[in-house]
Design a protein that fits this description.
globular; four-stranded antiparallel beta sheet; 0% helix; eight-stranded mixed beta sheet; mainly beta
Length: 128
Amino acid sequence: QVQLAELGGGSVQAGGSLTLSCTASEFVFDDSAMAWYRQAPGDECELVSRISSDGPIYYTPSVRGRFTISQDNGQNTVYLQMNSLKPEDTAVYYCAADLGTIVARTSYCGGEDYFAGWGQGTQVTVSS
């Protein structure tokens, strides 16, 4: 399992911005896609965005035009720039390295099937 460390969560008002970062313990971008998931209390773990070396970037419809995923191969880091945040974006955000299968939803963030590793999660709270 690859180790992933997230930074950048916090509390903002609606309309504000946050940037999340996720640094991997080793270079994984050739073998794995990097993704951001989120899970709010009582909800499933939802794929927010995904970037891979050989495929298109994915955004869940509710964040398109507001969130931007990017990666820095030299730093083994993937970013999620979140703009125009809304209260419904409030959740724990998790970074994940997947093994090529796109998992849109799962019961919880952190399962081993289809994934090479997960971060510990970072809280994002958006107030109205």
